[in-house]
Amino acid sequence: MSDPVRPVPQPGILDIAPYLPGKAGAPGSKAIKLSANESPLGASPKAIEAFAAAAQQLEIYPEGSSRLLREALGEVHGLDPALIVCGNGSDDLLHLLAQTYLGDGDEAVMNRYGFSVYPIITQAAGARIVMVDETDFTADVDALLAAVTPRTKVVWLANPNNPTGTYLPDAEVRRLHAALRPDILLVIDNAYAEYVTADDFTVGSDLVREADNVVMVRTFSKMGLAAARIGWMFGPAHVVDAIHRIRGPFNVNLPAQMAGAAAARDTAFTEQLKSFNAQWRDWLTAELDGNHMRVIPSQANFILVQFPDAEHAALAFTTLLERGLVVREVGASYGIQDALRISIGSEQAMRGVAGILQALVKVG
């Protein structure tokens, strides 16, 4: 019997490995989710108030350019609102950038353990992803540059990186950019910028102002608004113009716009979140690093913990899960079989993780 005639996806689509999100506890369980890098302090109270107020206007379309959100972002970050594009999460903007600047026969370069969405959006645009080995879980500028070919059109750089938490200082990002051809777009993905405490880190907005081939992408998801799906991009006028031509006309809903604007202006809450994260990120790192576990130094709101081998990592994941603590396996998505990614959560959760893993390695 012959196969039925039916619509067929474009070549390469079915070769794409789908994105694997972090697991959550079973419905109705009291499991603590430490697998998705969500805010341990919830959302800004001002953002919650603004989101609720938007319920009075649900019958109208949102303003199509996210003007009120762009103006808030420009005010807080010292940026020209006209050079900001907002999206339905930063993933929306990353997809649009790939769709705009990649096509059949093109290549995009990324570091080996970079964000797993980059291969998906690159291949979906018909281009080829080129993964470059890292140096001790950190993007290697020389290796990235060595991978550039005449076909290269985009370089994806998560800074800090997910799932490792490592980062490149401003000098290294600038060295990377300086050696790229002017027709290659450097995308600096700053999803975790609010949590960075390193003195030599910058978000790259100055570089965007100076160059025609750099964009900075940010998100509100790690700041307590993951459910609202708000991302934003700062880029040169010609990139902004191209993205506006293909983005959805109402791609950020009104409650998200209002909540995002309020969250951006609530800098006191952002600082509180950063301080809390730094305290417990550093504490958990000190508690776990050593005794057959290695914690990769992180500038994000999570840590990556390496175990002696994949079996120990699997045992640690299962043991934590049995105790109601859900962390992120990174073998299937990133190929790091001997490690787990652990989001920074409440004090109770962090002490629970530390106690369980310390006891586990003593008997493991």
TrEMBL record:
It catalyses: L-histidinol phosphate + 2-oxoglutarate = 3-(imidazol-4-yl)-2-oxopropyl phosphate + L-glutamate. Transmembrane segments: none annotated. It is an enzyme of class 2 (transferase). Keywords: Amino-acid biosynthesis, Aminotransferase, Histidine biosynthesis, Pyridoxal phosphate, Transferase. This is Histidinol-phosphate aminotransferase. It comes from Devosia aurantiaca. The modification N6-(pyridoxal phosphate)lysine is found at residue 222. Its cofactor is pyridoxal 5'-phosphate. InterPro entries: Aminotransferase_I/II_large (IPR004839), HisP_aminotrans (IPR005861), HistidinolP_aminotransfase (IPR050106), PyrdxlP-dep_Trfase (IPR015424), PyrdxlP-dep_Trfase_major (IPR015421), PyrdxlP-dep_Trfase_small (IPR015422). HAMAP family: HisC_aminotrans_2. Homodimer. Residues 30-353 form the Aminotransferase class I/classII large domain.
